[in-house]
Design brief:
190 residues, 10 helices, mainly alpha, single chain
């Protein structure tokens, strides 16, 4: 996300910090030292803290970028009964890629407006696809967009303690298969 009025070198630094933060948290989890984020981004610690005063602020900014991508997926064809499945797969893939970020976001103060906003924004992604899937009978009639919190928590539980991105991806694929079976409606079996 581009910050209006920001100098080009500041935008480059911010982009590098977001990329480095996402990579390091995905590789090593939520407790990666902030100085390592600055080092990988090729900027000084003062630059890091000018953009992101703490780890949860950095994680929220990374999560916002992930949400931007997921919103594009959700907007592609929200009324298609298969839209839920496409979006669910994209969300699970994002969870694998941003595995360490979920812990940072969960550890942050949920009462902070930006955390509440991000959670609400993530849940809104599923409103139209869930509605379309229920109407077509491809999803359970009682499935609600808020159930995504439960499903994503389940996926995160599966990913906990699984070493390495390849193994996490394999575990996530299996979790996705099981979730698909659990949320399927009567028309999905046809």
């Amino acid at each position: 996300m581009r910050v209006r009025g920001e100098r080009s070198d500041a935008r480059r630094s911010r982009t590098a910090l977001l990329r480095a933060g996402a990579e390091l948290m995905a590789e090593r989890g939520k407790d990666v030292p902030m100085y390592e984020v600055a080092r990988r981004a090729g900027v000084g610690q003062a630059t890091l803290y000018r953009h992101f005063p703490d780890r949860s602020t950095l994680a929220a900014a990374i999560f916002e970028e992930v949400l931007d991508d997921l919103e594009r997926v959700a907007a592609a064809d929200p009324d298609d009964p298969r839209a839920f499945d496409v979006l669910l797969a994209a969300v699970v893939d994002a969870q694998v890629r941003m595995h360490g970020l979920v812990g940072v976001l969960r550890g942050g103060d949920r009462g902070l407006p930006h955390m509440v906003h991000l959670r609400d924004r993530a849940l809104r992604l599923f409103a139209a696809p869930v509605r379309a899937g229920r109407a077509a009978g491809t999803l359970r009639a009682d499935l609600e967009p808020t159930d995504m919190v439960i499903l994503m928590t389940m996926v995160e539980g599966v990913l906990q303690g699984v070493p390495g991105p390849q193994r996490r991806a394999t575990a996530a694929r299996r979790a996705l298969e099981l979730i698909r079976a659990a949320v399927a409606g009567p028309a999905a079996a046809r």
